[in-house]
Fold each of these.
Amino acid sequence: MSGNNSEDASGEPTGKLAELLKLLKMNGNDVTKLTQSQQKEMKDYKFWKTQPVPKLDESVSEEGPIDRKKTPEEIPNEPFPLLAEFEWCTLDVTDQQQLEDIFVLLNENYVEDRDASFRFKYTREFFNWSLKPPGWKKDWHVGVRVRGTGKLVAFISAIPVNLNLRNKLVKSVEINFLCVHKQLRGKRLAPVLIKEITRRVNKYDIWFALYTSGTILPSPVTVCRYTHRPLNWDKLLEVGFVHLPPGATKPQMVANYALPKKTTTRGLRPMAPKDVDEVHALFVKYQSRFDLVQDFDKEEFRHWFLGGPEQLNASEDTKVIRSYVVENEDGKITDFFSFYSLPFTILENPVHKELGIGYLFYYASDADFGFNDRFDKEATAALKTRLCQMVNDACILAHNAKMDVFNALTSQDNALFLEKLKFGPGDGFLNFYLFNYKSFPITGGIRDDKSYDVERRSNLGVVML
């Protein structure tokens, strides 16, 4: 890092470098753990300097759009140029062969852990759920193929979302599944993919986007930490997902994470189509406490939490989303929670080939609705008690569905139950970004030392896949 950066007599950084390091520390990132390529990227951010995003050392004085509002007519009709050996394509995810192309590309080239031991194992059912919500556009499933062979070597997607940022509606898209074939990652395809999906979204008169990254880019609106609750500790040890702590024995660890076979919440049952209206109203009221949320209409709510017609009748092996409600003796629904399945492929293990992973999705509870302040001591205690019971039952249900670990971020009110329910802090952090929109910082549920922030919790109410 160069430019206006320097060190004082004690060797401590000053100037913009010091400001950047302070920001990274506040966001829970350790700059000393960045790879050389990430450190180089932080020096110049050549691509992101050209985009409407806040600079890393920029102080936001007012929330709102960055670029002036354009019109779709001002946006070029032609796609951005590619190298001669490549060509653009629009993927039709209703076509089984084209869906298979996405499936193969992501399962062979998408995110791996740092040790290259695990990789997301996306399923066709998962894509049908995640890429086709109400209002989805075929034009927003963008690919790059090798000219001549037709092989899909890059992909990016967008889906429509209505964001609510501190009671301001922001019509946006959610960007996801950016993937470039491993052998082509020096071709600068990723920036062109981002520019092309931006162009296509702009043609629909949408100018803002929400996206996430495990790496630091200009400039996160919030940062959350990944947490993991072992459900099958024995298997997790065998595949290297966990390690035996000093002084502990394997039987002790298995016993420590053991769960009952049956749930304990009275009135707990799977969510049904008839519940949509009541659960949606509960959900909207609960979400209103957070600074940044996604506004779901009832059609969107039905899709994301019931999964569409094919998921309602899906077998346990192919079910992606699972949603449950708590109905009291008077027939009122007081609570709701959901989690989805996205397994890992285990890359190098002679015995195990797959790791079952459950992800806490959205939830809602009326436990603290009778209080004016969610941070009131009694309100906090009431919500904590309810969430601990609900999420513990979610872990039991996930374990019974043959999942090996249950993941959650430090977003929402999660900090209230993470430690009690034995969710261990993971190595990864997820940075949330807004494209073309400045926002004041949003708490992410972690303190400066990266521990769970039980007092402030998080004001982020968005969960991204």
Amino acid sequence: MQTDMTAGKPMKMVLGFTIPVFLGNVFQQLYSMADAVIVGKFVGTGGLAAVGATGTINFLIIGFVLGITAGFAVLTSQKFGAGRMNEMRKTVGNAAILSAVITIVLTAVSMLGMHWLLVFMNTPEDIFDGAYGYIMIICGGIFTQVLYNLVASILRALGNSRTPLYFLILAAGLNIVLDLVFIIVFHFGAPGAAWATVISQGVSGVLCLIYIRKCVPELRMEREDWRFDPGIAGKQIRVGIPMGLQYSITAIGTMMVQSSLNMLGSGAVAAFTAGSKIDNVFTQAFVALGTTMSTYNAQNIGARQLERVRKGFRSADVIGCIYAVAVGFILFFAGKYFAYLFISDNAETVIPMVDIYLQCEGMFMIPLYVVNCYRNGFQGMGYGLLPMLSGVAELIGRGVMAVVAAHEKSYRMACMASPFAWIVATALLFVLYFYVMKDMKKKLCL
């Protein structure tokens, strides 16, 4: 069911769209969490560290896919909000062509450079082979990530956040079953978890594609809709590439932190991995709010309703800040207990390190909300490069803390890298908000 977000109460629209996206993001996180839980329990801390050592590389690749597919769908959402259905379908066809090209390039580059990258990141020798085997399978399956995220982004651009959730729930269950089969029955180790992830993601993408073909009349494509249009493609690239690079810039900063962690040994890597898995599940609400504001703003800018955009941001602020305080409290005081899902050995060493990580993160949930909501919200308004500046600010913040952590060989400093990056990016985004609103008012001649 498609939703017109240019009418109705903004609070109701934002909350109603966010909840399914949040649940979908949680189930998507269950892919990697199931990998970590099953690998940690049945392969051991070394296997968990092998998966964790590739976490930032995985985020670099998948984050770029998430950003660029979401960026391609911004124009689709704007055309839908303006009621221009013929033009909307052409944006979908062009997004598919661009995504296919990017899939080929990204797969080739990542697979060819992976061994060098793991060496560059100081991956410990005792987990190198497992890490390499795991991430190479993920790279080979990039096309499944592109397929799901593109079709899901298109559905969300039309205001439908529920259908991608349903198929993702099914795929998450399949992922857990395949994890158990590949790791426990066939003894594939960490690479078995990668195979489960790729297959499950592919299934969810195919199901979304079938749904679009059968149940979304607005997206019944004609032959002319598949013709490459340089004008449309140029607009999509101007938004999509910066959104993809924004994730990549964030990932590069995280890779710097990962490199400093690798110098502390596999125990620190395992603890950081477990902590990040816990943290990522709880903070998916912020990612969901960002996705919501991108779609909400895109539709309303297409309909030339800037005041609804302001009200949408205010509604998101209320939801995001209340949730940030609640989840920060949970992570700070009780987050470590979730780590027992992952840890099968060396618990007396690893669990306290997980607690340090979650306490550092839990104190700074409001800046994390701001980063996700406002950056994506600006992108939905058609700004590609400006929000990327906050990604550069994050990179600088993480980079500074990573260097300090490596120099001091400090695990706590490594844990503070992300919070410090969020604070720096938040300060910049507040300044950008006033500029973007003033600039958009001029563009719309309001």
Amino acid sequence: MSDPCTSSSVTKKRVFIHRQAREMAKNVLDMCVKERQNNNLTFTLNNAYDRASRYTGLSKRTLSAIQNEAKKGPLCSPSKKKRQCNKKTNLNVDDFDRDVIHRIIEEFYLTKKIVPTCIKLLAAIREKIEFPWGVTSLRKLLKDMGYRWLKCHNKRKILVERPAVAYARSIYLRKIRQYRQEDRNIFFLDETWLDNNLTFKKCWRNEMIDAVLTDTSSTNRLILVHAGSRGGFLNGAKLLFKAGTTSGDYHGQMNSVNFEKWATDMLIPNLPQTSVVVMDNAPYHSVQENKVPTKSSTKSVMLEWLIKNNIEASLTMRKDQLFHLVQLHKPTEKSFKIDEFIRSQGHIVVRLPPYMCDLNPIELAWAKVKRIVRHHNVTSDFSLKRLKEVTELALSQVTEEDWRGFDDHVIILEENYWQRDGLMEDTIDRFVIEVSDGEDSDTDSTKSAISESDAA
């Protein structure tokens, strides 16, 4: 009777030996060859762990663990579980919490009269809001909020807002105060999304609104664009359409083309004369008119811009010469296409400062609209038709009295920012910040944004 292991009728299963096992086998073989050449064992038979460790290349501790595991049953490979995604690493801090952090930083300087470190700041933030992240994430968030670390005379790093951010807020507050004193019609515009599955989230609170809702993924989602003032929503300016559709006037998404179409067809015709239009810096609001070429632009783009602006140049010039001319003649401020269009119709455009969504009263209007939609959506499964009906109902229930309350709330915030910014200027100046001439620019600020040291 033949051995089944050598029978030709039996196909041997191929064994795959992984890298670590192959290295271990090589170690054992090398030791055996060496012992044969010396005609002597390297270790005595009594030193089992020493021999096994030398042969396999594993530590005695590892070998002992393997032996204990073998006593419980057959050895097997460790399970290779897929690494779970840590949701805490997804730094998703809404605008309302960002404002809380902004106020906490001011409190350190104005009330406590001390320079905040990341560790102290993190502890203070966790007392006010839910913040499950650590110091490293906080540094990233501060950079995203427009803060950076600068050195004072004693080399101590202090946390300050980028000059461009503080400057933009100061300019905005000065303008909006002037227009309010002149009793002009001020209209705030914005876009939001509604779907058939809304959940509660944090919000600015007052006696009229106790929560804001955030949209979640849904097949039935609406895009809402509107404008409003102290007197309520602007009649005729409402735009409500389904997101994700590929037909219709607005193609299912809000972009610069659709926003300009809305402004042309629905906003401008319904604005009172010489109104003030306030908007944020969303990308589709910020398509530049006569965009200035950068260093990475091609020669043809640079030349085209120079000729368009009546600046003498030729294709025979080197790229560095063309860019030098661009730098000499570029405008001091960016010019946006939608701003120029609105101004051409006799109105004034004001841009909200970065990171300051709380200065837009329409955000409070969105909060009430979504709250009403949520209260009607008991089963969270509205059809698109029903969602539109309830959204229309919610918009009609945001009254002129509501808007006066929203606007009064924002006026208080504007005054608080104005007062605190003045105090912050004086407080920061006492630290005698030593910066180079180039560090105040937007370009260079990113180079010294945030220190990784614990002292920061």
